[in-house]
Every structure is written in C-alpha cells, then in structure tokens.
Amino acid sequence: MANIEHLQTVNVPASTVYEALTTAKGLSEIWTNELVVHDQVGLIHEFRFGGEGLTKMRIDELVADKKILWHCVDSDPEWIGTTISFELSEKNGRTSIVLRQMDWKEVTAFYRSCNYNWAIFLYSLKQYCEEGEGLPYHKRKF
C-alpha cells in the first residue's frame, strides 16, 4: 500500500493549528467552504469541492493540540478506506504538522494529484494560521 506524507512548520502554537483543523471556521478557510464539521469522535465530516462529489470523513481520534485522525468512508473510490492523520508537535511557539494519507491501494495519477493537493492544503493551513487567510478550494485560480 502507498502513503502520502508531508511536513509543514507554522509559526503559531499547536492549539491554533488544532483549532484550524477541527472547526468549520478553520477548515472553510483552509480546504473548502462547502462542509459540515463535527467535534466528536465517531461523527462524520462532509466536504464538497465546487458541487462535485461528496467526501465523508469519520473522526476516529482527537487528541487536543496533538493528533487528528480521519477515516474516509465515502468519496472517490481511491480515497475510500484511506486514513488521514495530522500529528502536531510544538517547540518554542512553532508547530510542526505531519500530514499522512495512508492505505492507498496503488500509486495512480489520482494519487499523484492528491499528493500535490495535500501540499497546497498545508500551504493554505500555514497562511491561515500565520496571516489569517488561507487558500481554500473556492479561492484557487489553478
């Protein structure tokens, strides 16, 4: 199985990053403004991108300021069954984020496209946390 893995460092405390990744306000600024977001393990987030297919992520783990784990239960067939994790570690007011999307069945063109888009997601997260404005799907020009 293949995994996607990225590292990003932001110049804010882990609590700021955690809030951005676990609230509708944060995720709408980072990823897409077409969403339904929850704050409880076992519930399902819903994300849409320009009216296209629905992506559903079950919240499997929430450890405040440390870890977020989602499991894809509905989306593009290549995403279903993958797990997305965000691991946060803070040192001197800076937070490192390790993002992983694990358990891809194979490396395909879609996998490669998603790899690129996760990097953009982390860029958007950094911009939002440090500057107050991210680059979500609906604002992208590319």
Automatic annotation (TrEMBL):
Family matches, as InterPro entries: ASHA1/2-like_C, START-like_dom_sf
Q: Which CDD domains match?
A: SRPBCC_CalC_Aha1-like (cd07814)
Query: Residues in domain Activator of Hsp90 ATPase homologue 1/2-like C-terminal?
Result: 11-129
Q: Which Gene3D superfamilies match?
A: 3.30.530.20
Give the similarity note.
Belongs to the AHA1 family.
Protein name as it appears in the record: Aha1 domain protein
Protein species of origin = Paenibacillus pasadenensis
